[in-house]
């Protein structure tokens, strides 16, 4: 049992070492208590579900011709807020890059940032799901 606890602690620490998560995840963990022991898992599960839908919406928006950069930025802004609230650091960094490209009207760069964003989101999702198992 102790070996399992150490493995879980090591996995959790790797999220911070690799800068996948930031201090806001720690704050989220502090909100969990005896009366709500699954709080963090519930919040993260909701985030992953909603962010996956937002990513699909962004992909649809990027496929439109012409691209509505203001609408696209709104989608990215929504993802930025939810990612920041759970401490999804790498996802948040890519969202910020994509938003900058949208403000510049640079679709190619926005698409490249979006591709990286999806990879970071997939990595985050896989690691968090494994962690909560």
Features:
single chain, 133 residues, mainly alpha, Four Helix Bundle (Hemerythrin (Met), subunit A)
Q: Which oligomeric form is depicted?
A: single chain
Count structural domains. Answer: 1
E-strand count: 0
What's the Cα radius of gyration? Answer: 16 Å
Mean pLDDT: 94
Indicate the low-confidence ranges by residue numbers: none
Question: Helical proportion?
Answer: over 70%
> So what's the overall shape?
elongated
Overview of the structural elements:
The protein is mainly alpha-helical. The chain has a single domain, classed as HPT domain (Four Helix Bundle (Hemerythrin (Met), subunit A), Up-down Bundle). It has helices at residues 2-17, 23-30, 39-63, 69-86, 89-104, 107-132. α3 (39-63) runs antiparallel to α4 (69-86), α3 runs antiparallel to α6 and α5 (89-104) runs antiparallel to α6. Residues 36-127 form the HPt domain. This is Histidine-containing phosphotransfer protein.
Concise synopsis of the structure shown:
With 133 residues, this protein is mainly alpha-helical.
SSE layout and pairings?
Elements: H1 2-17, H2 23-30, H3 39-63, H4 69-86, H5 89-104, H6 107-132
Helix pairs in contact: 3-4, 3-6, 4-5, 5-6
Pfam families: Hpt
Modified residues (Phosphohistidine): 77
InterPro entries: AHP1-5/YPD1, HPT_dom_sf, Sig_transdc_His_kin_Hpt_dom
């Amino acid at each position: 049992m102790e070996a399992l606890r150490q493995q879980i602690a090591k996995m959790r620490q790797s999220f911070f070492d690799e800068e996948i998560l930031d201090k806001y995840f720690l704050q989220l963990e502090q909100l969990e208590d005896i009366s709500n022991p699954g709080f963090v898992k519930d919040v993260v599960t909701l985030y992953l579900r909603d962010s996956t839908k937002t990513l699909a919406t962004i992909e649809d928006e990027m496929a439109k011709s012409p691209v509505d950069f203001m609408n696209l930025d709104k989608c990215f802004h929504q993802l930025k807020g939810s990612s920041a609230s759970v401490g999804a650091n790498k996802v948040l960094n890519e969202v910020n890059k994509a938003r900058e490209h949208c403000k510049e009207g640079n679709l190619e760069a926005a698409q490249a940032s979006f591709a990286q964003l999806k990879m970071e989101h997939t990595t985050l999702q896989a690691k968090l799901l494994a962690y909560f198992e």
